[in-house]
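== Protein entry: sequence and backbone fold ==
=== Local backbone shapes as whole numbers ===
==== Amino acids and backbone structure tokens ====
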Amino acid sequence: IADEARPRRQFMTAEIADAVMGTELDSAAIEPLIPRKPEDARCDDETCLPEAKTRDEAEQVTLAMVHTEEHNSTEAAKTYKVNCDKRNVTGLDQFSVLVLNASQDLMEFLNGNSSECSLVLFYTTWCQFSASLAPHFNALPRVFPAIHFLALDASQHSSLSTRFGTVAVPNILLFQGVKPMARFNQTDRTLETLTSFITNQTGFEAAANHTVTQEDRVGPLPSMPMKSVDWLLVFSILFILSFTSYAILRTDSIRWLIPGQEHDHQD
């Protein structure tokens, strides 16, 4: 009977009830959990909440906790497209872009037995956009020393351009070993966008102690377009013109129009 006459205590959550009812606490310790006066409480069909924290406020706190847990779980489960290994930079003081000449093969500089990553730039010396990109690409080794950076003239490596679908320059590909994994497709080619691209693809952060200097931006890629004669294009045009002229002269209809050709047929 005494238990029935005792007022029933209500708690905000089941966890609070378990903690209070399962431990030896005096009334002073649990007093803050219960409203001092009935008018200080707001009750609905399910729970009673103190005046200091209404149901809407409690729901906001609960939603905030849920969103925080979802955010933390998302961060923990976040994976990157390219799982790169960092290259060993022990003993290296200078970091720069390796520019391949016409006789060097890109595959020889990409380690197929390793998971290290390389960022490869396809460019041409006469392209204005390649020249504008050059200072930013030159500075990348200073920002990401754990990644290899290479560049090659697409006009000198036409087979590689065809192999990797390089139909326009500049074109930037991220390799893991010898396998192309991602392509930089943004039109805004700056050090900031390139840094963001590498971080989003690999998870690598910019070196904490990196300081890009003017010397880092200067070379080795030229920042001014160079005018030069494309001898391959010249020889291709000459070959087409010569072959077309030869084919026209060998046509029978043309031979009849040339003076002296009909005598050969009469004989």
Q: What stands out?
A: The radius of gyration is 37 Å. The mean pLDDT is 75.
